[in-house]
Amino acid sequence: MNTAVRRRARLTVGLGAGGGTAVLELVFSVLAGLALLLVRAWPRGERAVMRPVTACARRLIDLVRHRLRALLDERVSASYEPAGALRYLATRWALGLVGAVVVVSALVGLGYGTFFLYGWAIIDIDHVDSLVLSSFGGLFLIFLCLQGAVGIAHLEGQLARHYLGPGQQEALERRIEQLAVSRAGVVDVVHEERRRIERDLHDGVQQGLVALGILLGPRPAQRRPGACGRSAAPGARTERTGTERAT
């Protein structure tokens, strides 16, 4: 519960700060657009104007990246194209102003929603039902503003990833790194499986050889029951012969 409340508070502060930077972004977009429009037909002058425009855009983007990381948990790569930064600043100011309106509405809702706590000490309240309805309306406005803050924060992240995503070089490097990690994992799995198969084969063959040696090895001498009977038979016949002769 406390984590959710802190997260919503961070979202509110982040949108409020975004509303403040939206004014700077709007002013910068208007001035940069006019400057580039005036030198549009002069390539040399356009390159000269682009240098300070790009430098100012990078400073504003640094503020945006810090705000997104600290308050909205959105991480934006430092490797972005200058053209993408200019498009982002020219687009983001509208979303920032909407976020500021949401924050102001939430504060108004908070004032109305908690009016029943301090309104008794400020004014004389004649209609209690009006006080209850206004408090309920303020709390409902806070709920709507919190939901809107989550949606605007999501749009902020999508907009930043769209315009300030990693450049082509960084994207290729990340892809190569991911492939290297995946390949290392596959090689480890293959080695582990090969060692398991070798261990199973070694243990199975060894057990088979031991069993075969037991089966083929010399057995201990054992006296058969029939041998004793056969050896006693001649003696019995001799005794019977002597008895017959005596009779």
Separate helix tally: 7
Q: Alpha-carbon distance between the termini? A: 119 Å
**Could you spell the SSE succession in H and E letters?**
HHHHHHH
How many β-strand stretches? Answer: 0
> Which residues sit in consecutive blocks of at least 5 with pLDDT less than 50?
227-247
Tell me the strand percentage band.
Answer: under 5%
Round the mean pLDDT to the nearest integer and report it.
77
Rg computed from alpha carbons, rounded to a whole number of angstroms: 45 Å
Find the structural class using helix and strand composition: mainly alpha
Largest sheet: none
Percentage of helical residues?
over 70%
* Approximate shape: flat
Please outline what is shown here.
The protein has helices at 2-38, 43-71, 82-113, 115-122, 128-163, 168-216, 225-246. The chain is built from 7 helices and no strands. 19% of the residues are buried.
Describe the structure.
This protein has 7 helices and no strands. With 247 residues, it is mostly helical. It has helices at 2-38, 43-71, 82-113, 115-122, 128-163, 168-216, 225-246. Helix 1 crosses helix 3 and helix 3 (82-113) packs antiparallel against helix 5 (128-163).
Structural descriptors:
86% helix; mainly alpha; flat; 247 residues
Write the layout of secondary structure elements.
Blueprint: H1 2-38, H2 43-71, H3 82-113, H4 115-122, H5 128-163, H6 168-216, H7 225-246
